[in-house]
């Protein structure tokens, strides 16, 4: 059996193009309409500073969503990524407070998040045979509680550590560093999903696990790996968010991040049924959510309406996913 990146048999070029057009047309058209409306109604929307602000403030969301794309394409879901970001931020701030140099602390934070996500989420789901919803929902609470215990519920400042601030809110060649990191993560994710054997295996497992196993794919290893990747990107996002906020936020820093990331992935054409979704589509989904939130802010609407808007979009994305499946 030949498996292509869609998780199905190899279709012709016209079929692949048709699938891509159907996948992106809806959210792409909605994004264009949203941009046009905001351009006509908000004078500040198209300013360079505002565009950079949209990209910078949504870089963390995109990095998390890249990892979550692998999980959802493989027919899974990780509800713990937001809590992983919160715990990673507290862990980083705690090491800095203890005198660990910034760059080793950053590396250790990313490694610790990856190891924790792989060991618990990946291990229990892939090799323990437990339901991904139960495991990651439990991890959501466990990691959030661990962040509170490690920090004693107190925000820890990182403002004295320049490398952390640079990664979270600095610039390189006049371009925001968080955006640079997000682009690099997106490129790596795209290459892995589109051009590697592992990426094709992720699509195959999500599209048809039995067929993938019969084709020689190590299904357990793939499932283990996608949760490790989600934890890895959560660790990177933890460093970025901590640098942007100049502190760890054990309670509110990454609250709801997992739902926003899932909404972005689903808006971008992925399906809870597995086997479909791309990094490019996820980028479109993140842009839609980011521009929507920015438009709400520019219109002077209270910020708490952003949560309502994100919830509405998430429900709409799930409904669209069900409609596409049918």
From TrEMBL:
Membrane topology according to the record: Multi-pass membrane protein
Keywords: Cell membrane, Membrane, Transmembrane, Transmembrane helix
GO CC, one annotated term: plasma membrane
Entries under InterPro entries matching the protein: ABC_transp_permease
Membrane spanning residue stretches: 24-42, 54-72, 102-120, 132-151, 171-193, 224-245, 251-272, 279-298, 304-323
Cell location: Cell membrane
GO molecular function (one): transmembrane transporter activity
Domain of life: Bacteria
Main location: membrane
Protein name per its UniProtKB record: ABC transporter permease
Lineage of the species this protein comes from: Bacteria, Pseudomonadati, Pseudomonadota, Alphaproteobacteria, Hyphomicrobiales
């Amino acid at each position: 059996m030949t498996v292509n990146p869609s998780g199905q048999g190899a279709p012709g070029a016209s079929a692949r193009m048709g699938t891509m057009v159907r996948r992106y047309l809806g959210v792409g058209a909605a994004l264009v309409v949203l941009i046009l409306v905001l351009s006509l109604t908000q004078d500040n929307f198209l300013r360079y500073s505002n565009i950079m602000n949209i990209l910078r403030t949504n870089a963390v969301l995109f990095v998390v969503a890249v990892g979550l794309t692998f999980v959802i394409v493989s027919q899974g879901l990780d509800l713990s990524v937001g809590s992983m970001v919160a715990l990673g931020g507290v862990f980083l701030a705690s090491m800095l407070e203890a005198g660990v140099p910034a760059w080793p602390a950053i590396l250790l934070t990313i490694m610790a998040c990856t190891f924790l996500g792989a060991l618990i989420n990946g291990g229990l789901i892939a090799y323990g045979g437990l339901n991904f919803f139960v495991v990651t929902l439990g991890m959501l609470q466990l990691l959030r509680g661990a962040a509170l215990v490690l920090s004693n519920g107190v925000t820890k400042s990182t403002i004295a550590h320049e490398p952390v601030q640079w990664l979270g809110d600095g610039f390189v060649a006049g371009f925001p560093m968080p955006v640079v990191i997000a682009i690099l993560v997106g490129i790596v994710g795209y290459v892995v999903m589109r051009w590697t054997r592992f990426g094709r295996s992720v699509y195959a497992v999500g599209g048809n696990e039995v067929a993938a196993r019969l084709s020689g794919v190590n299904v357990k290893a793939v499932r283990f790996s996608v949760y490790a990747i989600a934890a890895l990107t959560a660790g990177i996002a933890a460093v970025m968010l901590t640098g942007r906020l100049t502190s760890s936020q054990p309670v509110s820093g990454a609250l709801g991040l997992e739902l926003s990331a899932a909404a972005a992935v689903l808006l971008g054409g992925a399906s809870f049924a597995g086997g479909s979704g791309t990094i490019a589509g996820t980028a479109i989904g993140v842009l839609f959510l980011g521009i929507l939130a920015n438009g709400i802010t520019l219109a002077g609407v209270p910020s708490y309406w952003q949560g309502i808007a994100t919830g509405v979009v998430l429900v709409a994305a799930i409904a669209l996913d069900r409609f596409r499946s049918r």
